[in-house]
């Protein structure tokens, strides 16, 4: 059966819900992509880059799902997410030129929270999948992948917080 929205599901609410998750995915991809570029000199770069690649693929999957279900896209929401993510870069963290050692701590915390929200989205789609003509196992796997992403970001956070607040430590070590 092809993906579809049955009469029993409120198409408008589902559309808004998926659009909100796409907006979050757009912002999250921008943030994790920047982290992957900014922290190449750290021992946790591989974890960051891996999560960035997975989020990029998941965003494409979500875009395809929205298209397959015939849900109207709301590009203004993605534009707003892009603007908000870029505006978030303007915080100074007490440093004008170089990055603050605290940045990686905060960025990893924000990404863990975002991924937790994303897991909720996959769980919701897992529950609705049979009615939508989708494979529930896909969303079960995506939720598990999200938990693995949180574990990777836990390692990033452990490294960052162990070094960020000490005067003579360096996050690149």
Detailed description of the structure:
- The protein has a single domain, classed as Ferritin (Up-down Bundle), CATH 1.20.1260.
- By secondary structure, the protein is mostly helical.
- The model has no long low-confidence stretch (mean pLDDT 90).
- It has 5 helices and no strands.
- The longest helix is centred in the last third of the chain and has 30 residues, at 103-132.
- It is 72% helix and 0% strand.
Distance between the termini: 53 Å
Q: How many β-strand runs?
A: 0
Largest sheet: none
Poorly predicted runs: none
- The class by helix and strand makeup works out as mainly alpha
Q: Might you state the CATH topology name?
A: Ferritin
Number of domains: 1
**Average pLDDT score:** 90
Question: What series of H and E elements makes up the topology?
Answer: HHHHH
- What's the gyration radius in Å? 18 Å
CATH class: Mainly Alpha
Query: What's the helix count?
Result: 5
Strand content: under 5%
Structural shape:
elongated
Q: Judging by the overall fold, what is the CATH architecture? A: Up-down Bundle
Helix content: over 70%
Task: Summarize this entry quickly.
The protein is mainly alpha-helical. 72% of the residues lie in helices and 0% in strands.
Summary keywords:
5 helices, Ferritin, 173 residues, 72% helix, mainly alpha, elongated, single chain
Task: Map the helices and strands.
Blueprint: H1 11-38, H2 45-68, H3 75-88, H4 103-132, H5 136-163
């Amino acid at each position: 059966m092809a993906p579809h929205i049955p009469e029993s599901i409120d198409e408008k609410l589902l559309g808004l819900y998926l659009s909100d998750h796409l907006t979050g995915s757009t912002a999250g991809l921008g943030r994790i992509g920047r982290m992957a570029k900014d922290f190449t000199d750290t021992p946790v770069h591989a974890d960051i880059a891996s999560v960035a690649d997975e989020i990029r693929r998941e965003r494409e999957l979500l875009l395809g799902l929205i298209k397959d279900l015939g849900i109207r896209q709301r590009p203004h929401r993605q534009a707003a997410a892009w603007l908000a993510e870029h505006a978030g870069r303007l915080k100074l963290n007490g440093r004008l030129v170089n990055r603050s050692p605290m940045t990686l701590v905060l960025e990893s915390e924000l990404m863990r929270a975002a991924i937790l929200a994303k897991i909720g989205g996959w769980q919701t789609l897992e529950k609705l999948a049979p009615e939508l003509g989708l494979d529930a196992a896909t969303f079960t796997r995506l939720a598990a992948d999200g938990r693995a992403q949180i574990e990777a970001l836990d390692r990033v956070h452990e490294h960052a917080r162990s070094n960020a607040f000490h005067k003579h430590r360096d996050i690149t070590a």
